[in-house]
Amino acid sequence: MSQITSKLQIATTTDEVRRTVRAAQAAGETVGFVPTMGALHEGHLSLVDASEAQCDRTVVSIFVNPTQFGPNEDRDRYPRTLEKDCEMLADRGCWLVFAPTDAEVYPPDHETFVEVGKSAEPLEGQIRPGHFRGVATVVLKLFQMVPADRAFFGRKDYQQSLVVQKMATDFNLPIEIVVCPTIRESDGLAMSSRNAYLTPTERQQAANLWKSLMLAESLYQSGERNTEIISEHMRELLAQAGIDQIDYIAFVAEGTVDPVDHITGRTVVAIAARVGQARLIDNHTIG
Ligand code: PAF
After folding, report:
1. Which of 65, 119, 196, 245 has the smallest C-beta neighbourhood within 10 Å, fewest atoms?
2. CA 211 – ligand 1 centroid, Å
3. Helix axes 131-145 and 14-26, enclosed angle (nearest 10)
4. CA atoms of 139 and 35, how far apart (whole Å)
């Protein structure tokens, strides 16, 4: 295990991280866990802050999980900025970074995967087959490696948080899942490691995802309840901004992935679109 600063340590093996977490728990401390794929931004750091506020110690994992990427996705070019990430985490008071190699997490003879259910089927699950199988598998493995008391996830990945919560319940995992609000740039763009793929022009264009969600909100506020009509207006706004590769605009009942045609209660508007080389997702709750 290496000591990065006087406070931050970095572990690369399961034995090291598990032993260190268990020792803290044996001394009566609670441990919070923030699983990430690195390329950290304020969104991740807000999860660290939440963990720091609720737990005595915070562990952050940095691992670009190969099993959640499809064959034509961005696994190889996903930004990897470990040194900078560690500096940011040290500044934020993080205690321990877990940065395993691919072979540590998936030895060559690894063969067992989590079979995800209904909450993983539509939306991201439909566009990215196998994605949530990979997410659920790595999160379950990370929970075994880092036996923390609480784990923190961002609301930007709405469906991911549902899949993880369901897995934790269905598998009786002794960990509390905490979902924290999306952190946005000043023009509303949800923070994401994939924003790094955007050129300056695309970066401006990308803010229209949030504008389209705000349009949904204002149409709802002015009495519109038909989600097809709201969706058409959102598509028009996005088309005017030059965003025409929309994977989906979906309306689902809060806390589920059940589609909503007519809004009667809290409804999540979820959007996924491609802007240049980046595939971006975002969501907003109305109702
Ligand atoms: O949200 C992410 O960054 C990843 O999907 C996660 C939860 C770290 C699993 O690889």
Report:
1. 245
2. 26
3. 50
4. 8
